[in-house]
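Suppose you are handed a protein chain with no further information: no name, no annotation, nothing but its sequence. What can you learn? This example shows the usual starting point.
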Amino acid sequence: MINNDTLRSIRYMLDLSDGKVVEIVRLADPAFPLAKEDVQAFLKKDGEAGYVECSNAMLAHFLDGLVLYRRGRDESLPPRPVEKRVTNNVVLKKLRVAFELKDVDMHQVLADAGFPISKPELSALFRQPGHKNFRLCGDQLLRNFLKGLTLRVRGNG
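A reasonable first move is to predict its three-dimensional structure. Written in structure tokens, the prediction is:
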């Protein structure tokens, strides 16, 4: 899925202002260069004047910041290195951690979006890429997960 779409979906889900997105990114790395204007450019539609593609580094910092924003920082642990490449699987993992979702919750979120998957299919998404049962998370699955999570967070109304 395109990084801009992922950012747009999460921002809508949590009803975040541009300034709040900048704050969340700064939780992961206070030195990361990002301004409100950058966020506004990421949120524009492709082809719109001023549209800027959201980099993997930017989305990785946002997702890491989101985990810290929702769960807080554990001072006893060293900061985790930021992901170099943000795949759909990474987005799924970060959201699972940020929202403290268990397997049952993940299944419910996907079912609420009208996209139920089996337990083995779900666990395959969270395996290490070298594992024989690893499965790439497709755009459709991530879109439906974001849709279901939005329903859960914002309510059906």
